[in-house]
Amino acid sequence: MTDDGLIYDWNTAGDFLFPPGRKITLDDETLRDGLQNPSVHNPTIEEKIEILHLMESLGIESANIGLPAAGPRAYADAEALAVEIARSRMKIRPNCAARTVEDDIRPVAKISQRAGIAVEVGMFLGSSPIRRLVEGWTVDFLLRTTENAVRFGVAQELPVMYVTEDTTRTDASTVEALYSAAIRCGARAIVLCDTVGHATPMGAYNLVKFAREKIVAPSGQSIRVDWHGHCDRGLAIANSFAAIAAGADQVQSVANSLGERVGNTPTELMLVNMQLLGMIDRDLSKLRQFSEAVARATHTVIPPNYPVVGRDAFRTATGVHAAALIKAQRMGDAALADAVYSGVPASLFGLEQIIEVGPMSGKSNVLHWMHRHGIPPSDETAQRVLDAAKLASTVLTDEELFALCRQPSPR
């Protein structure tokens, strides 16, 4: 569509562009960070396995399968998920969260050995000045803790992903000292965290650029840089793409934006935007199924106006919008109809544009509905239905529309 000149794309018209050709991956944390949301229900292991397989079907590259040291059930579920990945020969790579203490790292090593696959350990440590004040920590203490934990993880033959909490509110000298120490001790992935949703896109860009230039490049090692963001300012998706533009290799995300407080960067919307930006090219027809499975398992609700997977994402009852969509459909061009009043083509995600009839509709809405449901078009019937719709307080259901169409004409 864009190549045909019908849509001018300002996203690619300026100097700010995403580096071409770089592989960007996702680490889905639904089954760990997502479950820290105080309103969610902890899914059964059967539900977690279903969600894991849906992640695999969407091509998600890695998944956080839990914090095993949190308790017996957390350990058992993490082990079961690792075993399922191994048994099913899944491509998705598992990782587990752990504090920077040996007692948290040992269970991850045990799970890796029992499943017979590599399980990356994501060891985290608070770093910001405000956290150091509250905890009574010094930077020297954080450095010793980091070095001991990373060395222990490496000794357990675990791939180490080193995480500082609240990185976006941590001074540059501490950021450089901690990550450099972790890399020297064997960490091969670092995670920059916007733990409390403080960052703006400029802040995310600046931090990742700093980490690339001042930490990763001088190390001489091949280090994966992850971005972990939260939604407190509503900027999580924008921040994630700013981080990618600055050099992040992987974004950590959670289905349906679940997670602490108001949640984490949403997995499904990262996939949507990565697909539209050409960063990935894959079958995302199970995207809604994935989001709905997570909502069902966690006893949460997807808002009707949620992008792409929400009930209203591709529905319209507005006369002007529907008229343009119908005209495009009559031209026999499915792609045109999918794009004329939608910035996200529904067909890319196994969905379709839907025209409803309600108080903001025109006669074209009614005639389209009648045609779609095999009812012979009639101006008289269409006007009767439209008159009723104008008096309604919401869109009419199919049952209501069928009943109106069946009403006898007045004599």
Gist of the model:
This protein is α/β, with parallel strands linked by helices.
In words, what does this structure look like?
With 411 residues, the protein is an alpha/beta fold. The protein has 2 domains: 21-298, TIM Barrel (Alpha-Beta Barrel), CATH 3.20.20.70; 315-406, no CATH class. It has helices spanning 45-57, 72-87, 102-115, 129-135, 139-155, 172-184, 201-219, 236-246, 267-276, 287-298, 319-330, 334-339, 363-372, 379-391, 398-406, and strands at residues 25-28, 62-64, 93-99, 120-126, 160-165, 189-194, 224-229, 250-253, 315-316, 354-355. The strands form 2 sheets. Strands 1-2-3-4-5-6-7-8 form an 8-stranded parallel β-barrel, surrounded by 6 helices. Helix 2 (72-87) links the parallel strand 2 and strand 3 (93-99). Helix 1 packs across helix 2, helix 5 (139-155) runs parallel beside helix 6 (172-184) and helix 6 (172-184) crosses helix 7 (201-219).
Question: What features would you highlight for this structure?
Answer:
about 400 residues; alpha/beta; TIM Barrel; 2 domains
